[in-house]
Write a sequence for this structure.
């Protein structure tokens, strides 16, 4: 110990020793800054840093050694062999590189010990090579015992240095290991120097001028120090460059966070703004402190793909953030960057579009498309449920009489009522003008559905008082149950409709459950529909004619053509049974055209003064070419237009009123007469009489049949006759069966009449006359 101190204090220039120590300290600080940096890096980058570290330490130790050598004030002049000197630097660098490679990213005590041994060996090898480069007229003798102690002490100090490096963090991670590193180098150097003796030996080397011999060492050391500074600058430049990524992060619109080891190390202002905190508050926290997954579970940064999350603090149901992560190298460390995009607006818009596509815009109930989807899902779930088909009673009338705004209002009120009556899982849909469907889920007994149906009916009765409110509507409900009434969507819907049809026929405002008997009725109807479509081609239709007479004289002025269907197996089907079906399925358009052409053809063979009346269904007005068909029928039959009369009912004005009026005007312009049929049974609206100049009004037979014993019926007939007079429209009475009725109608001033009293509908009344005529002509 004493000899070491003596060596340092008496054999060295203290100023140069101080410089050597500074060089050593600088080298070690450089080393651990770089090593520290390397542990954060991705592997390839870390290896580069290890090379830099080995150079820093190798050059540092070498510079320390030679500055110390310059400080040595030995008794004889010495100089140095340049190649050996350079070799000594290379040795130091090589050993240190091996040592740092071995040390690894997270050094254990054992690894530190091994690395320390290599480092000490490196410093020792560098030292002895450096000593061997001395050229002096002397023999160098070394006390091997002391040298060994020097190596051992050096190794221990390096061990302490590496262990400190492994166990500290922050700036301590540089200062503590660097202190031990300096100790290791200094202890080895001066202990080894004290163990070294130069024994003068004039046979060796040439005695040289001491000053000249050392000159090249000065620039070498200056270079070494410059190199260290450059290394430090280089490191800081890289830092600067990577720090510029921060500027880039601020330039993007996305919110960004950079995390290292699960902690946020950097954020941009966009993220701070999104979270409503200062950037500083985010540093050091974990992303899970701020975000949760959409299902409320803790947020974990995904790897490579993106997840949807929302803010932990958010109460906004619609908020959706898309968080994508990417591994990057940031400030020399392997980090994850989280890019957070606020998709809330886009999601809201998307949701609105989806909602629009699946909902009825007026009532906000599900639409048909969504309902079909929901029904399929309910069936796929294989759990019992009820399907309720609902239809408003009198809705069409309310809509037509009070206008569409009133109709819309009714629909919305009914929608609210249905929504309030069902449970959360049930689906309520509006699938047509006034048609609604409900899927009632979790129905264990028919009673569940019955309760819902009566709840709806009761609530509606409270909401709308049919007795007082002219705008009030009723509801009819048909119920089919899954799976007993059908296990596929089509059957279920058909059966619910069948039940609804029954509910309506039972006298509206009630509910009906589907049953097999109903099914038979429905099947029957479907069979009838099928046969009706083929009635024309099978030649099963024919016309009969009922006379229209002048009330006063009983003379026939015309005939009304009435349709008959002779069904192959059922026999004669009454028109009151099949006409509504033909209207429902649209077959009436084709059938009506057949009637028109047939009636015109037959009437063309009648005397000139006899006209023919043809019933035209409201549905026929929905086909735009009705006037053209009438024209064509007249032309082909060769019938004068004034001999044709069309009978229409008020329902013709309900839908597409304007186009119906237009068609009527066109028809009337041809010279064809138009009569209003069944007046008094429908809306009997004055506006219809005002809107169109009818050629006559036919009072419905229900009034005529009760005219002799019902004073009210009589006053209605009288009022209608008065009305016709003021509009200049003659009145025809239908269903006259007795002489008393005829007399009464005559008294009231009804010029024409029709009924069994005058004649029943029969086949072509002039068939015989026609053949007579043909015969006489022939
Ligand atoms: P409607 O146009 O009111 O025809 C008059 C109906 O009353 C006919 O029944 C006729 O037979 C019946 N009738 C005539 N006089 C008397 C009477 O004194 N007492 C009673 N109780 N009834 C009488 P029909 O032929 O069964 O026709 C029923 C309905 O079928 C018609 O009522 C009409 O609305 C419709 N219809 C008949 N043929 C056609 C047609 O070719 N086209 C269209 N669209 N509808 C038709
Ligand atoms: Ca008629
Ligand atoms: Ca009639």
């Amino acid at each position: 110990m004493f000899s070491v101190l003596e060596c340092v204090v008496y054999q060295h220039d203290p100023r140069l020793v101080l410089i050597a120590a500074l060089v050593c300290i600088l080298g070690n600080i450089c080393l651990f800054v770089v090593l520290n940096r390397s542990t954060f890096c991705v592997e390839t980058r870390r290896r580069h840093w290890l090379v830099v570290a080995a150079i820093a330490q190798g050059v540092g130790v070498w510079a320390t050694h030679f500055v110390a050598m310059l400080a040595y004030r030995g008794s004889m002049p010495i100089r140095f062999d340049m190649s050996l000197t350079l070799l000594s630097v290379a040795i130091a660098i090589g050993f240190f590189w091996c040592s740092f490679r071995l040390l690894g990213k997270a050094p254990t005590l054992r690894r530190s010990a091994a690395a320390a041994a290599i480092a000490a060996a490196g410093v020792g090898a560098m030292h002895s090579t450096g000593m061997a480069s001395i050229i002096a007229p002397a023999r160098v003798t070394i006390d091997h015992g002391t040298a060994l102690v020097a190596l051992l002490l050096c190794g221990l100090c390096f061990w302490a240095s590496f262990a400190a490096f492994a166990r500290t963090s922050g700036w301590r991670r540089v200062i503590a290991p660097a202190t031990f590193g300096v100790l290791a180098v200094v202890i080895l150097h001066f202990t080894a120097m004290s163990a070294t003796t130069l024994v003068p030996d004039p046979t060796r080397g040439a005695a040289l001028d001491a000053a000249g011999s050392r000159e090249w060492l000065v620039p070498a050391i200056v270079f070494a120090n410059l190199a260290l500074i450059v290394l430090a600058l280089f490191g800081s430049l890289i830092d600067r460059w990577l720090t510029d990524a921060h500027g880039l992060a601020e330039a993007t619109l996305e919110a960004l966070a950079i995390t290292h080891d699960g902690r946020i190390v950097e954020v941009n202002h966009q993220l701070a703004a999104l979270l409503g905190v200062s950037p500083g508050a985010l540093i050091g926290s974990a992303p899970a402190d701020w975000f949760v997954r959409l299902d409320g579970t803790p947020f974990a940064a995904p790897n490579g793909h993106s997840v949807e999350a929302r803010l932990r603090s958010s109460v906004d149901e619609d908020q959706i953030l898309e968080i994508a992560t990417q591994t990057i190298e940031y400030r020399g460390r392997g980090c994850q960057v989280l890019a957070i995009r606020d998709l809330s607006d886009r999601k809201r818009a998307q949701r609105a579009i989806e909602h629009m596509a699946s909902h009825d815009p007026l009532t906000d109930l599900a639409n048909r498309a969504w309902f079909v989807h929901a029904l399929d899902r309910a069936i796929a779930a294989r759990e019992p449920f009820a399907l309720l088909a609902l239809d408003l009673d009198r809705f069409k009338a309310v809509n037509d009489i009070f206008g569409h705004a009133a109709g819309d209002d009714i629909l919305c009120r009914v929608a609210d009522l249905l929504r309030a009556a069902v449970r959360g899982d049930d689906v309520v849909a509006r699938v047509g003008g006034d048609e609604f469907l409900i899927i009632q889920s979790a129905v264990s007994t028919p009673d569940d559905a019955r309760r819902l149906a009566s709840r709806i009916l009761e609530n509606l009765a409270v909401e709308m008082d049919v007795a007082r409110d002219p705008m009030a509507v009723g509801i009819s409900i048909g119920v089919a149950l899954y799976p007993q009434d059908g296990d596929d969507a089509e059957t279920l819907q058909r059966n619910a409709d069948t039940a609804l049809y029954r509910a309506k026929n039972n006298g509206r405002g009630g509910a009906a459950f589907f049953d097999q008997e109903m099914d038979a009725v429905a099947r029957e109807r479907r069979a009838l529909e099928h046969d009706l479509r083929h009635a024309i081609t099978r030649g099963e239709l024919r016309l009969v004619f009922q006379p229209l007479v002048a009330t006063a004289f009983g003379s026939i002025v015309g005939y009304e053509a009435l349709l008959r269907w002779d069904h192959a197996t059922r026999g004669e089907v009454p028109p009151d049974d099949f006409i509504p079906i033909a209207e429902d399925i649209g077959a009436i358009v084709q059938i009506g055209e057949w009637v028109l052409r047939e009636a015109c053809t037959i009437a063309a063979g009648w005397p000139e003064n006899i006209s023919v009346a043809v019933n035209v269904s409201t549905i026929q007005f929905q086909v735009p070419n009705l006037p053209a068909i009438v024209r064509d029928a007249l032309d082909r039959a060769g019938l004068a237009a004034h001999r044709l009369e069309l009978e229409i009912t008020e329902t013709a004005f309900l839908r597409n009123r304007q186009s119906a009026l237009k068609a009527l005007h066109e028809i009337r312009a041809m010279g064809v007469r138009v009569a209003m049929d069944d007046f008094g049974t429908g809306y009997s609206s004055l506006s219809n009489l005002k809107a169109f100049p009818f050629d006559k009004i036919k009072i419905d037979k229900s009034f005529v049949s009760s005219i002799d014993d019902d004073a009210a019926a009589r006053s209605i007939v009288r009022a209608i006759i008065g009305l016709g007079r003021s509009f200049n429209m003659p009145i025809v009475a239908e269903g006259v069966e007795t002489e008393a009725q005829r007399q009464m109608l005559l008294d009231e001033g009804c010029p024409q009449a029709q009924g069994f009293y005058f004649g029943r509908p029969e086949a072509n009344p002039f068939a015989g006359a026609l053949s007579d005529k043909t015969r006489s002509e022939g």
